[in-house]
Amino acid sequence: MAVTLQQFNQSRTRTDMPDIRPGHIVKVYQKIFETKEVGKKMETKERIQVYEGLVIAMRGRKGINATITVRKISDGVGVERIYPLNSPAIEKIELIKTTKARRAKLYYMRDRVGKATQPKGELIKKEEKPKAKAPIEAKKEEKAEAPAETKAEVKAEAKKDEKVEAKTEKKE
């Protein structure tokens, strides 16, 4: 009945995580437990804290010890957090934007300032669902999409149609 270490690690790894790589911008939803002393009792509150930033490093790709380092700029100061992927404190990780990085570790991003902190590379777009539009907006767009034909264009099309009809009659 001895459970090997590999079997134990496999049973504890999470399978609901998206494929995260350096260069991706992610939102990490982390559970935060707050305790307050109310009289003689201790109250524990749980809330979700969202941290959005750029993944600059990964360790242990798919193992039990896998971690990601997420960096963001907060009030002009760079802040990095290391998240263990298999931690029960992580509610979920959501991919916001995926870019193709040409390095495994993006530590050079620490020296960047301003717009240079945005990852360069190819933007890999996810399939987006078309949003439902209000009926009034849909009508406005239909009118805008309809080609604005002038009288001259209508007459030119009518002449072309007459010529085509005349040619078909001659062939018969």
Please outline what is shown here.
This protein is of the alpha+beta class.
Largest β-sheet summary = 6 strands, antiparallel
Class from helix and strand fractions: alpha+beta
Distance between the termini: 91 Å
C-alpha Rg, in Å?
29 Å
Q: In one word, what is the shape? A: elongated
CATH architecture of one domain: Roll
- Which CATH first-tier class of one domain would you pick? Mainly Beta
What is the number of helical segments per DSSP (H or I, 4+ residues)? 3
The count of strands amounts to: 6
Question: Strands of the biggest beta sheet: in what spatial order?
Answer: 4-3-2-1-5-6
Percent helix range: 10-25%
Low-confidence stretches: none
Q: What string, H for helix and E for strand, traces the elements in order?
A: HEEEEEEHH
- Named CATH topology of one domain: SH3 type barrels
**Strand portion, in percent?**
35-45%
Instruction: Estimate the mean pLDDT confidence.
Output: 82
Keywords for this entry:
SH3 type barrels; alpha+beta; single chain; elongated; 6 strands; 23% helix; 172 residues
Q: Would you mind describing this structure in some detail?
A:
By secondary structure, the chain is of the alpha+beta class. The chain has a domain at 17-129: SH3 type barrels. Helix content is 23%, strand content 35%. The protein has a 6-stranded antiparallel sheet with strand order 4-3-2-1-5-6, with no helix packed on it. A hairpin with a 2-residue loop joins strand 3 (67-74) and strand 4 (77-84).
